[in-house]
Amino acid sequence: MKLFQKNTILALGVVLLLTACSKEEAPKIQMPPQPVTTMSAKSEDLPLSFTYPA
């Protein structure tokens, strides 16, 4: 039983070591740009008139 555990641990260690040393890069997944709406602001004078009770 002990020999089986040692062999299993050794095999897992070798597999992890080999996968960690891989030179391939994982493909980078990018989200597409989100659609946005834009608005233009312009300044202008607004006429104000105030009516007060006498």
Q: Can you count the beta strands? A: 0
The radius of gyration over CA amounts to 35 Å
- Assess the beta-strand content as a share of residues: under 5%
Provide the structure class: mainly alpha
User: What is the terminal-to-terminal distance?
Assistant: 104 Å
Helix content: 25-40%
Mean pLDDT: 84
Shape: rod-shaped
**What's the tally of helices?**
1
Encode the helix/strand succession as letters: H
**Poorly predicted residue ranges:** none
The multimeric state of the shown protein is single chain
Largest sheet: none
List the keywords.
54 residues, Multidrug efflux pump protein CmeA, rod-shaped, 1 helix, mainly alpha
Fold and architecture overview:
The structure is a single chain. By secondary structure, this protein is an all-alpha fold. The protein is 35% helix and 0% strand. It is rod-shaped and about 105 Å long. The mean pLDDT is 84. It comes from Campylobacter jejuni subsp. jejuni.
Summarize the structure.
This protein is an all-alpha fold and 54 residues long. It has one helix at residues 2-20. It comes from Campylobacter jejuni subsp. jejuni.
SSE layout:
Layout: H1 2-20
Organism: Campylobacter jejuni subsp. jejuni
Protein name: Multidrug efflux pump protein CmeA
